[in-house]
Amino acid sequence: MQSEIIEQPQRWLDLLAQREAIDDVVRMINNVNPQFFVIAARGSSDHAGLYGQCLAHNILGVPTMFATPSSVTVYDAKLCYPRAAMLAVSQSGASPDLLSVASAARHAGVLTVALTNDPDSSLAMNSDTHVSLYAGPELSVAATKTYTAEMLALYLIFQRIAGVNWTHIDGDVRYVADKATELINRQDYAEALAATLTNSDRVMVIGRGYSYATAKEAALKLTETSGFAASGWSAADAMHGPIGQIHENTPVILLETGIRGRNSIEALGDKALALGAHVLRIRLPIDIEKIPESLVPLLEILPMQVAALRCALSCGRNPDSPIGLAKITQTV
Question: Judging by beta carbons within 10 Å of its beta carbon (0-12, 13-18, 19+), is residue 178 exposed, middle or buried?
Fold first, then answer.
């Protein structure tokens, strides 16, 4: 897990180099001119999909929904889509329910784009087109580099659909990759988080907007590697019930690097403090004016990944092989 966390900036640059392949997919999507997008994903890929949904809404103004695999695999529903494109996001491209959803979408006349780390996977071979994540083999069960590669692939696709030129995209992504290397090499954020979390029985992670995906993914990393009862929420949703899980000294992690959603996150933090929570504010040392806020999630997940690794080791667990989990999850 540690080596795969460290690899991430270079993997992003590898993906950035696949301009021709990205543009081929974008041309296919533009030919459809979709009225909306459908995202099919599970686990960490589902959280990358949340990020993609936010991108599609904010950059393109195109409504984006999530597929419900059980509609196909359990209820055998025959969905009739308006003009749409499906983005099927999966590390392995082997989950049976995603294959079923993609197949059903294709039969309904929907353009299906697979984003996987394996160009020879069943999902890649049975979709209309494929985007390789170029993350390389990921051996740790806890997804790290494929998660951020999925986010970057979605970012590149939607930016190119919006007509943003490659020179501009290249500059932003390279800046983020440089900052990612600095963050990974800095251990203070992760060490402070791990020291606070190790003796806790529950953790709440709060984001908003683009950072909502980070909140969900950070909570999953803590749960799967260390067995914490961790949950990730939008600051707005957390006010509607989830804040009730806060007891004295409950760690509440606030993802405050982004500007747009910061006020509501800070308001939630104030309420958490009043309830006795141990509030941890994550505001990364980056110049937010130099990059689009939409790229912040690639950076803010990094200290959470390292913290999850440190917590697992402190608890005597193997983060590469968490109890009860496997790299490929065969959901139906």
Answer: exposed
Mean pLDDT value of segment 233-252? 89
* CB burial string 277-306: b at 16+ within 10 A, e below: bbbbebebebeeeebbbbbbbbbbbbbbbb
Name, in order, each residue with C-beta under 8 angstroms of 21's C-beta and a sequence gap of 6 or more.
131, 132
How far from chain centre, in Å, is Cα 9? 15
Find the helix packing angle between 211-226 and 296-314, rounded to 10°.
20
The reply to whether the predicted model has a pTM over 0.85 is yes
Q: Can you tell me the distance from the alpha carbon of 305 to that of 221, in angstroms, rounded to the nearest whole number? A: 7
Residue 7 to residues 1, 88, 298, 312, Cα–Cα distance (Å): 10, 24, 13, 20
pLDDT exceeds 90 at position 197: no
| Whole-number Å distance between alpha carbons of 64 and 87 | 10
Contact partners, residue 279, CB within 8 Å, separation at least 6:
252, 254, 269, 272, 273
Helix axis angle for 2-16 and 145-161, nearest 10°, is 20
**Residue corresponding to tokens 């919006």:** 162
Which pLDDT score, from 0 to 100, does residue 330 have? 57
Q: Compute the distance between CA of residue 157 and CA of residue 251 in angstroms, rounded to an integer.
A: 36
CA separation for the pair 182, 272 (Å, rounded): 31
Q: What is the pLDDT of residue 294?
A: 96
Q: Which residue has the tokens 């667990």?
A: 317
Return the half-sphere exposure (C-beta side, CA atoms, 13 A cut-off) of residue 152. 33
